[in-house]
Amino acid sequence: MMHLRNATEADLPAILEIHNDAVRNLDAIWSDKLESLDTRRDWMRERLDAGFPVIVVADEDNGVLGFGSYGPYRPKDGYRFTVDHSVYVAASAQGRGAGKILMAALIERARTGGFHVMVGGIDAGNTVSIKFHAAFGFKEAGRLPQVGAKFGRWLDLVQMALVLDDRERPPAN
């Protein structure tokens, strides 16, 4: 039985392992550099201090199966109603529903947090992730050719976006 909860510092080793496994083996994170526990701790503190969620799906023994978060899409204040998200699931837990739990929770938190659009940047070759996002209502919003590099090849970026509400105008400042 899986359950969703807010991440704690005690979850950081598992979050780090999931993240670094993706760096080592997948095109999902466009970096060749493994992170340390300190860099993941800094990432989590920055997210939480800014009011953004860091959540995990855990098993019945409270072991972390996956994590998700969102944060600023871009730094300029004109983007303040848009968030960029990430969902990562341990290789051993993929295909069991953890990603769906994480994504649904992030979408709900973004909606209740007053955000208007959620964006995801996905390697164009990752058709599983593209289909996963489409199942949640994300639409392809653009493709950027050869903007990334990993494993000795150029990578294309697919931007997918989900409009979270039907507001015609942003709130007044």
TrEMBL record:
It comes from Roseibium algae. The keyword Acyltransferase applies. This is N-acetyltransferase family protein. It comes from the Bacteria. SUPFAM superfamilies: Acyl-CoA N-acyltransferases (Nat). The keyword RNA-binding does not apply. InterPro entries: Acyl_CoA_acyltransferase, GNAT_dom. Residues 2-165 form the N-acetyltransferase domain. Keywords: Acyltransferase, Transferase.
